[in-house]
Write a structure and sequence with these properties.
- The protein is of the alpha/beta class.
- The protein is built from seven helices and 20 strands.
- The strands form five sheets. The chain has a six-stranded parallel β-sheet, with helices on both faces.
- The protein starts with a strand and ends in a 17-residue tail after the last helix.
Length: about 375
């Protein structure tokens, strides 16, 4: 298949109906069998041509098309190039000659969303409602059944900074939003280095820290190692550990036969080095009543948590305050320099400003595509 394109380099892109045309007469073209593009533009395999939204510019283009799959009844206005019947007009109609035609072409910009948080899911949902952005959410793959996210999704690492640079370039990523967990330190710095090398704008989307309130009995430490040291030298005997399965080995110094551990994790730990102990598999959000009942039932006298922020797991802090239970709070690791916001709305504003998009409140809703 050979396609002649105007001067742009995007995939996917969109053809919209001319002004005054009946939108019902335009339908989706699947051009997944593109083998070659000619001219100054590139149409990648798997691209979709579909009516969607108001154009930004108008160009003239011409093309020679081999068989193209059309969703629904193939009805197109005169002027769409076709060399013989049976391509994208019914075979019982006369062939239309190859011709120039004017059409509006728009290019969704690609955004890479480094996800795994509630904020990332919210931003993916907001971006999925726009027709000028194509978003792919990347997940680390640390949980067996991650929560569903709108749009495209990839799971697993990139192969370090160099691998992420290669991905940004090969996928023509226009912007990166790092909405990983506040304690995903490695990915945060890899994203910073890769975006700087590839010349791609990057935003950090991070929820605010929890703040101690009146009646709290918090002890704040710098990292997991400091938390383990505080436990091993402290008076706590029944510890509620909510830091995740990845850090369990760090608390081995506190295993001396005098402590009992209650470990909560989304997925079961591959190895449980803390004894005696009990493991609870659960995913937030949690209620204050439920957390208080759990702590009372197990006679918890110390809660250990990372300062993750957000609402999904904050109930344990309210329950600890109610029960006058001490809380060992692990502070967040440092972040690289660069723009940072705390809300999905602010992230959308940054994307619109950085990519030259209309603000969210000025966007028209994505129209439903019709088959016929």
């Amino acid at each position: 298949m050979i396609v002649l394109l105007p001067a742009f380099d995007v995939a996917p892109h969109t053809i919209t109906a001319p002004e005054g045309a009946d939108p019902a007469r335009w339908c989706t073209l699947d051009v997944s069998r593109v083998e070659l593009s000619v001219g100054t533009g590139v149409l990648a395999p798997g691209s979709m041509l579909a009516p969607a939204f108001q154009s930004r510019w108008t160009v003239a283009s011409a093309g020679v098309c081999s068989p193209v799959t059309v969703a629904g009844q193939p009805r197109f206005p005169t002027g769409v190039p076709c060399s013989r019947p049976g391509r994208y007009q019914p075979s019982d109609q006369p062939a239309k000659p190859l011709s120039l035609f004017a059409t509006a072409v728009t290019a969704p910009l690609r955004v890479l969303l480094l996800g795994g948080t509630t904020e990332a899911s919210g931003l993916a949902e907001a971006l999925s409602q726009r027709d000028d952005v194509s978003v792919v959410t990347s997940l680390a793959g640390r949980t067996a059944a991650p929560a569903a996210v709108p749009g495209r999704r990839r799971v697993g690492g990139f192969g370090g900074t160099d691998g992420l640079v290669a991905y940004l370039r090969s996928e023509r990523i226009a912007a990166v939003v790092d909405a990983t967990h506040p304690f995903a330190e490695v990915m945060r710095w890899e994203a910073y280095d890769a975006c700087r090398e590839a010349g791609v704008p990057r935003l950090r989307l991070e929820r605010p820290r929890w703040q101690a309130q009146g009646g709290d009995r918090w002890t704040v430490v710098a990292d997991v190692a400091a938390a383990a040291a505080a436990i091993s030298t402290g008076p706590a005997r029944r510890v509620f550990l909510t830091t995740g399965r990845g850090d369990l080995a760090a608390f081995i110094p506190g295993v001396d036969g005098r402590r009992w551990w209650l470990v909560r994790s989304i997925d079961p730990p591959a190895r449980l080095p803390l004894h005696p102990s009990e493991v609870i598999l659960s995913r937030g959000p949690f209620s204050v009543e439920g957390e208080a009942e759990l702590m009372e039932r197990h006679l918890i006298d110390l809660v250990v948590t990372k300062n993750s922020g957000g609402n999904a797991t904050v109930a344990k802090l309210h329950a600890a305050r109610r029960l006058d239970v001490g809380v060992l709070v692990i502070d967040r690791p440092p972040s690289p320099d660069g723009p940072s916001v705390a809300t999905v709305g602010d992230a959308l504003e940054w994307l619109c400003a950085s990519l030259g998009l209309r603000p969210a409140d000025e966007r028209r809703p994505r129209p439903a595509l019709r088959d016929g």
